[in-house]
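#data-curation
PF: Archiving a pair of folding outputs for the training set. Convention for this channel: one message per protein, sequence first, structure tokens after, nothing in between. First:
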Amino acid sequence: MYANNRKTILFSLTVLCSLFLFTAVWSDSAFAHGKKKHPEKGKMNQHMQAMTAVKDKVPEDYRVMERTPIAPDEDSLAQGKKLYGRNCTVCHGDKGDGQGPAAAALPTAPANFLDVQHSGMYNPGEKFWIIGNGTGATGMPPFKNLSPAERWHLINYLLSLQKQPAAPSAPAMLHHD
């Protein structure tokens, strides 16, 4: 009798383990961390495709700029905030959340600077290049009217919106008087 109970328990455990493994391997949501399925590898939504295309256009010299050459001090942040108000809010919104009044009319949603992970796709040098050259298909125009120092002030301000300090400044600081 003991042998029969042992076989029954062993059989039941085998069936349960098999069901568990089947569910884990074949189910769409057994161990999902979100409500929607993740896109298949190699497939991205239109917004991420546009962001990747822009990143691919940035020259290598800008891709290696991990720091701003102007310290993100109070003066730089104040100048950046002023420049943001004049040039960026119409698309990116007052808060930097990508919800400006013109956002709905653009072919690709404007960047949400509050989303650290999303906005972090571009380093400071790439942001500098994008501001000066625009993005083409996404609808962002080039801001050729901004001097290099103004673009760095703007980037310092954008980084401050994320409530994280900008990377330490490069050793040779630009004066922004």
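PF: Second:
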Amino acid sequence: MVKMATDRSDPENSLLSRWAKRKEAVREAEEVEAAVAEPAEEAEPETEEEAMALLEERDPELAEQISTMDLDKLSYDDDFTVFMKTKVPDIIRRKALSKLWLSHPLLANLDGLNEYDEDYTQAADAAETVRKIFEAARLRKEEAAKKKAREALASNSSEPAPEEEAETAEADTDDLVEDDDGDLEA
């Protein structure tokens, strides 16, 4: 009798065993690719001297260019692009960027226009602010209506009486009702 590849009695030729073998081969190939593709992670240097030694190994020309610059004497007018290259260790890059931020008042001082500086998590504070703004707008509207009524009365007595205009202005705000918490609602 000839055994077929789909014979379920033979454990080596079963569908699951073939699938497991293929999956294992793919996994081994991926591990080999990952080992070849990823260079060994180097530990980041902790001091500037170690960082410069590492940079000299990676790129001697870049190390020479950076060593001619004194990190403590960098100013806003200096070229900081050399520190942004990928071969430059983070400790040197961070020190150069900190000198850049401190070198010019425009970069060193916050302008207060950052949206993330505010705390928007306090909804109760926002409700109180909105209520105050609404109340101020309502008062301005009432004052404007009273002023308009006085002007109309003074200029022409045939126009509607000031009480009528004041009543229409109040009717616009009478729709708002104050709830138990003191907040205004429509």
